[in-house]
Amino acid sequence: MTDTYDYFESRNYVNDINQQYTQVLTAYDENGKIRETYTYGNERLDYSDGTDTYYYGYTGTGSVDHLTNAEGLYETSYSYDAYGNLSVSGNTEIQNPYTYNAEYTDASTGNQYLRARYYDPEEGTFLTQDSYLGSLLEPLSQNLYIYAENNPVNYSDPSGHGILSKIKSAAKKVATTVKNTYNKAKTWVKNTYNKAKNWVSNIYQNAKKTITNIVSGGGSGNSFYQPSAYEKAKSSGQSSYNWFNSKLKEAGNILNSWTKGMERTVKHFCATAKRIKKDSADFIKSIDWRSSVRIRSREV
Prior knowledge:
By secondary structure, the protein is of the alpha+beta class. Helix content is 38%, strand content 20%. The protein contains five helices and 14 strands. It has helices spanning 166-216, 229-235, 240-256, 260-286, 289-299, and strands at residues 12-16, 23-28, 34-40, 44-48, 53-58, 64-68, 74-80, 86-90, 104-105, 112-113, 118-120, 125-126, 155-156, 164-165. It has an eight-stranded antiparallel sheet, with no helix packed on it. The protein has a four-stranded antiparallel sheet with strand order 9-10-11-12, with no helix packed on it. It has a two-stranded antiparallel sheet with strand order 13-14. The protein starts with 11 loop residues before the first strand and ends with a helix.
């Protein structure tokens, strides 16, 4: 007998079983052609039908509220009653099967696939009994057909075996998002701090070298006109070692107590040290040493 009305299509699924509740990644038809593809983050993010991609927006309780296109424009909007009976507005040609509580809804029957069994939103009950017999302490759980203990506003049943608090689920998602944001911010601050610390350390080392060059006389040919560390220490009533060591401690304090103002101070210090060295060298070069030697000889 010919299937005149073409009531069914074959689908083969690739599922992600690593999530708390198994989710569909890709659906193929009987010819191996990809018909639907889904991307996930904390929830299902987008849906592609092989031609176009649509992005999910959710209600506070986790149902799909709308779909937007690649330009961010609304394509389809969804609304529900407490038990999940669906109303669609906008582009009704989009074959998105995930609606109430973001679960799969069969387009032909309107029933939701909740893994262990199917749920009928029109009746507000499951089509088959729950294999979990319930708890004596929770009488509603012993009705093996009712959905979410007759409280679908606050609970859902994604496994088909037990209720899940929508409030706790939403709070968990928020907590996860906050935690991820905090960890990213913490990593960024840590990396920025390390970069700044390395930069300051390089400035400190350059300052230390500059001080050492000034004390020792800089480069070749100029050491005879530079004051020694002993002379500098003597003028301040310190030993040569203590004077030089105190300067290094000052530079170390700059590294340990770094601020924007300190940054400007170090840059100013380095520039000043270079200027003094250059000015001193220019002054020495400008002296007529031959005349000075002749004057000294006459005095002797």
